[in-house]
Amino acid sequence: MVIENKFIEENINRLLIKEFLRKEISGAGFGGMDIQRTPMGTRITMIVERPGLVIGRGGANISRLTEEIKERFGVDNPQIEIQEAGSNAALNAQIMAEKLAEALVRGWHFRRAGHSTVRRIMDAGAKGCQVILSGKLTGARHRTEKFTEGHVKYCGETARETMDEGYAVAKKKAGIIGVRVRIMRPDAKLPDEIKITAVPKEKSTAEKPEKKQKKVEEKPEVKEPTVEKTPAKVTDIKGVGSSTAKELEKKGITSLEDLQDLSVDDLAEIKGIGKKTAKEIKEQLKKLAKEEA
Q: What's the CATH number where 60 sits?
């Protein structure tokens, strides 16, 4: 198989997984998804507004989703992690698009729903936002309405870096209404934003008479001997013995960087490492990372 075709198939598979999860947890406020491959399997991180609906009673719903993703899309050992949007839900474009679509389905007037969504996003601290509604809003003819406030960028690299987009669909009796929400993040830095710092004024030499400078013999600089640090090994971590190191090598983990990518649950599943030891190993890795920084 050509390597380009492999990348295309993987991206298509990711898009299908995203659409599947969006439909399955439509009432929980889907805010995005991220897929990462780890030595222990595939980690799927979802941002939702109401994580309780996704997990289900006793974790039944999330277990069902894991099995269906494994069977339908052929994902190797999928592990779903849930992140709560929390106070940043109003700054998540996908969540706000889903909420606006739900409001339209419940019967809200499109102008009232659009203005209230823009007001809520701007009150959360966004630099700018735009809501676009397109479809059969009032009659039989298709029309488009835009609600804009603050700074909004439409094209170029600036738009790709500073604008977040979300899309949802509202199904009504008259027809389908497309909902698109674009938000400029509060920490977005625009190209025309320049910070000028004050420079201290230099004292003029003309005011004071020049003093005779004494000649100072320059001493040769003595370079301090540099001590090369030997890179830390996996066996240097407390709790990882030779037998455990062999088990890690079987999993393809030979360096501290590979060990840092594993979560506490992944470490606990390895033979010879328990839940308590896994937490201690993660704390040691954090201390090593701080010392290197």
A: 3.30.300.20
Question: In Å, how far from its chain's centre is CA 33?
Answer: 8
Say what the pTM is: 0.58
Q: Any idea which residue has 């106070």 for tokens?
A: 87
Domain with 238 in it:
234-292
pLDDT one-digit tens code per residue, 238-252: 666 666 667 676 666
CA 134 to chain centre: 29
What does each C-alpha distance from 97 to 2, 107, 134, 181, 183 come to in angstroms? 38, 16, 13, 6, 11
Measured CA to CA in angstroms, residue 150 lies from 28, 79, 113, 187, 260 at distances of 29, 39, 18, 14, 41
Is residue 225 assigned to a domain? no
Total domain count, the chain: 3
CB 97 within 8 A of CB 41: no
